Amino acid sequence: MDLGIKGRRALVCAASKGLGRGCAEALAREGVAVTIVARTASDVARTAAEIAALAGQPVRHVACDITTADGRAAALAACPQPDILITNAGGPPPGDFRDWDRDAWLRAIDANMLTPIELIKATIDGMIERRFGRIVNITSGAVKAPIDVLGLSNGARSGLTGFIAGLARKVAPHGVTVNNLLPGRFDTARLRAIVTSQAKGQEVSEEAVLAAIKANIPVARVGDPAEFGAMCAFLCSVHAGYVVGQNILMDGGQYPGTF
Ligand code: NAD
Predict the structure, then answer these.
(1) Which of 57, 74, 85, 202 lies 20 to 30 Å from 64, alpha-carbon distance?
(2) How far, in Å, CA of 209 to CA of 8, rounded?
(3) Cα separation of 209 and 199, whole Å?
(4) Residues 94-121, buried b or exposed e (16+ Cβ, 10 A)?
(5) pTM of the predicted model, to two decimals?
(6) Residues sharing a CB contact under 8 Å with residue 227, sequence separation 6 or more, in sequence order
(7) Which of 119, 9, 3 is CA-nearest to residue 66?
């Protein structure tokens, strides 16, 4: 299927690894002019070169922290008028809410709610003027069903989700769609770090922790970031213009509800 977005410009945040990279790769393969952002200069440059080699076209890259005003300014200077915006940042740490002070909450809200809103604010009017725009926010399955140790994520991402539900309907008449992609368990550096830490905490092997995770997922495996990227690219395609304000869960069937 031709996704109809060749030559469009995309800004993909937090994309040197994991889910962001999966999205950047899928878009670049469709001929989208991709700019990727991540904090570590060497990592983001290497990933840009690797994606460029796969896609057969240049990929721009910016080393910055997207959760800061300076970082967002640098990202937008490199890709000022994207037609496609993929928002993403690292997730907040696990813990017990009794240990989180106001600053811990503000960091989570800044990274996982206000940063996407600021990026959308800076780019959406251009999309409206050009009568085409695609915004995909990488959130989490925690929005659909809370994860007990990730209260900061449950809270901050739900705030973003509520805001997007309203915004998506306002901009839809102008050819701009805004949707959220909710990952369950995907094979990324973040998941591997969680597995390592749980294995240490429970004094069991990493294989045992991973097997327990897979046992809870109907497809009996964790997701591949390339699968996540493919869904993201479809949401950004010309074929997805009727998908508005949705929360699309990709979790291998782990969420047990009918809807
Ligand atoms: P990852 O650690 O594999 O990759 C994160 C990427 O984001 C890296 O490229 C890193 O350099 C970049 N990054 C992190 N913080 C940044 C910042 N402030 N500014 C710029 N770049 C930044 O993580 P992932 O597994 O791909 O997760 C991506 C998002 O999805 C996170 O918010 C995570 O909480 C969420 N999530 C992941 C899973 C999963 O199973 N992998 C499940 C649910 C939610």
Answers:
(1) 57
(2) 42
(3) 6
(4) eeeeeebeeeebebbbebbbbbbbbbbe
(5) 0.98
(6) 22, 250
(7) 119
Q: Calculate how far, in angstroms, residue 131's C-alpha sits from the geometric centre of ligand 1.
A: 30
Sheet strands (E) in 81-165? 84-87, 133-138
Beta bridge partners of 176: 133
Report residue 88 as tokens: 């993403």
Residue 184 CA, ligand 1 centroid: distance in Å = 13
Nearest to 87 by CA among 54, 154, 148, 134: 134
Q: For ligand 1, is residue 229 a contact (CB within 6 Å)?
A: no
Kindly report the protein residue whose alpha carbon is nearest to atom 36 of ligand 1: 140
Instruction: Give nearest CA residue, ligand 1 atom 14.
Output: 90
Pick the closest to residue 144 from 128, 157, 163 (CA basis): 157
Q: How far is the CA of 245 from the centre of ligand 1 (A)?
A: 22
Q: Could you tell which of 13, 19, 112, 224 is best to mutate to test the pocket of ligand 1, judged by most ligand atoms within 8 Å of the CB?
A: 19
pLDDT per 10-residue tile (average), the chain, 259 residues: 98 98 98 98 98 97 98 98 98 95 98 98 98 98 95 98 98 98 97 92 96 97 98 98 98 96
Residue 54, H or E segment: helix 41-55
Q: Which of 147, 150, 190 is nearest to 14 (CA)?
A: 190
